[in-house]
Amino acid sequence: MEKVSDVLCNWGHQQRFSHRSEVLDCDMHFSVFVPPQVNDRKVPVLYWLSGLTCTDENFVIKAGAQRYASEHGIAIVAPDTSPRGDQVPDDPDEAYDFGKGAGFYLNATQAPWSAHYRMYDYIVSELPGLVREGFDFDHDNVSIFGHSMGGHGALTIALKNPGMYRSVSAFSPIVSPSTVPWGEKAFAHYLGDDRSAWEAHDSCALIRGGAAHLPTLVDQGTDDDFLEVQLQTSLLEQACAAADYPATIRYQPGYDHSYFFIASFIGEHIAFHSQALGNFNRM
Questions:
Q1: Does residue 148 have an active-site annotation?
Q2: Which residue of 17, 61, 124, 220 is most buried, as measured by CB atoms within 10 A?
Q3: Active site residue: 202, 219, 224, 269, which one?
Q4: Three-state DSSP class for 203?
């Protein structure tokens, strides 16, 4: 890893790193917020997964999470949303919802995407390995959250890896990508036409299939332009009810899909994770 930047922020350090990813076969960046409590103890780790078109920097700059991470003594790791570089294939139509910036946090099985688009392995294995090597955090005390495509990623990764995360939360997640246009486009290209393979990356299907329970919080704005077609939060409510899965799903009146929404409730999400992490030694 090479440290690209290190900025003092809300009593902690906002850092950015570059590295060569063996999993993605390209150069990558990720950001880490290091809270001040690292001087006294090992702090738990919270992974943030961003949405379509984002890099690791969108959350860092817009969400205002550092203040709350410092108050609770939690490190936040924010990776990029896809492989990067001239050698990485992209959407031939240059659309925003597929290719670069739209990795969907899965391992592609179809050429040419399978050579680089392995974001599931990157998030679950390679990136945590780098963080373990570089930081003396409490790496056995970890949670995950995200937004939109990243909300989909956080939910599915947590559901597919019981025991790895203490809690999961999401803002405006794509809860059933197998049945909405964003997911159908990406999954068809990355995974092929066999829809049965798509269910391994669909939160609703995983919950209906008996995924282990863990503390789960979802916030969705009622004025989100993507709610009715792309997000369909009601499908998650139905899946949770059918499987008796105890998720907290909240609709926030008047909020949209933007980082203004995230910034408004990020403190509540970090507090939710702090409790699940058993993290009571605050500033």
A1: yes
A2: 220
A3: 224
A4: helix
Marked catalytic residue, from 147, 189, 257, 273: 257
The domain limits of the chain are 2-276
Catalytic-role residue among 148, 172, 178, 274? 148
Mean of the pLDDT values across residues 31-53?
A: 97
- Around Cβ 44, how many Cβ atoms within 10 Å? 24
The CA distance from 195 to 173, in Å, is: 20
Question: What pLDDT is stored for residue 281 in this prediction?
Answer: 53
Q: What's the angle, vertex CA 69, arms to CA 44 and CA 143, rounded to 5? A: 40
What pLDDT band is residue 38 in, cutting at 50, 70 and 90? very high
Please say whether the beta carbons of 18 and 28 come within 8 A.
yes
Residue 282, pLDDT score:
52
User: Helix 259-276 and helix 65-72: axis angle, to 10°?
Assistant: 10
Q: Which CATH architecture has domain 2-276?
A: 3-Layer(aba) Sandwich (3.40)
d(CA 182, CA 175) in angstroms, rounded, equals 11
Q: Does 257 participate in catalysis according to the annotation?
A: yes
Task: Give every CB contact of residue 206 below 8 A, 6+ residues apart in sequence.
Answer: 156, 159, 160, 199, 200
For 197, list phi and psi in degrees, rounded to 5. Answer: -75, -20
Query: In this structure, are residues 104 and 174 in contact, taking their beta carbons and an 8 Å threshold?
Result: no
Across residues 121-142, what is the average pLDDT?
97
Among all chains, which residue has been given the structure tokens 């950001």? 31
Kindly list the distances between the CA atom of residue 193 and the CA atoms of 77, 188, 196, 197, 198, in Å, as whole numbers in the listed order: 33, 5, 9, 9, 9
pLDDT of res. 280: 55
- pLDDT band at residue 15, thresholds of 50, 70 and 90? very high
pLDDT tens for each residue of 213-244: 999 999 999 999 999 999 999 999 999 999 99
Say how far apart CA 172 and CA 125 lie, in whole Å: 25
